[in-house]
């Protein structure tokens, strides 16, 4: 095995590659379609799952339900999504793309988060478990104070963050 210092440097480089790849894609998406990659991912989920509920969408995007609702408000204001209350259960709200939302998706790139999800799906169960455990240990070692940080989507504006 490589010496510990080399291993640590390689991991730092690999994390930068992942983070910057997502940042670059987010900027490209925003320039091409005027939406953040997180909102575009949301629209792809609505396209694939018409009638999905807010809680289900938040779970699919791995974001907090209130963040999901705020993002939906913004997409609805642009005329890209709509919400329909269930006639049988007024508490249930089902989400759909509008015609304008479907047209936007026809020319939009795939969001980076979807690519990341697909890459994770392609990992073996063992690799996925090792990655999860390793990242969990890394986060614990960093003594991260914001437990909710993982429930907020990355945006191109996050590119201003530095180590």
Automatic annotation (TrEMBL):
SUPFAM superfamilies: Winged helix' DNA-binding domain
InterPro entries, sorted: HTH_MarR-typ (IPR000835), WH-like_DNA-bd_sf (IPR036388), WH_DNA-bd_sf (IPR036390)
Start and end residues of each HTH marR-type domain: 8-140
Matching Pfam families: MarR
Gene3D superfamilies according to UniProt: Winged helix-like DNA-binding domain superfamily/Winged helix DNA-binding domain
GO MF, one annotated term: DNA binding
Keyword set, alphabetical order: DNA-binding, Transcription, Transcription regulation
The organism's place on the tree of life at top rank: Bacteria
PROSITE patterns documented for this protein: HTH_MARR_2
Record-given protein name: Transcriptional regulator
Organism of this sequence: Desulfocapsa sulfexigens (strain DSM 10523 / SB164P1)
């Amino acid at each position: 095995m490589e010496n510990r210092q080399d291993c640590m440097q390689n991991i730092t480089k690999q994390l930068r590659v992942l983070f910057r790849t997502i940042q670059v894609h987010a900027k490209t998406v925003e320039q091409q379609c005027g939406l953040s990659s997180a909102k575009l991912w949301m629209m792809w989920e609505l396209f694939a799952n018409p009638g999905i509920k807010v809680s289900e969408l938040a779970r699919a995007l791995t974001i907090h339900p209130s963040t999901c609702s705020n993002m939906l408000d913004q997409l609805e204001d642009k005329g890209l999504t709509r919400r329909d209350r269930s006639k049988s259960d007024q508490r249930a709200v089902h989400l759909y793309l509008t015609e304008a939302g479907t047209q936007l998706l026809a020319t939009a790139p795939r969001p980076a988060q979807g690519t990341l999800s697909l890459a994770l799906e392609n990992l073996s169960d063992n690799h996925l478990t090792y990655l999860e455990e390793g990242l969990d240990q890394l986060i614990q070692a960093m003594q991260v104070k914001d437990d909710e940080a993982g429930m907020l989507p990355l945006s191109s504006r996050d590119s201003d963050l530095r180590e």
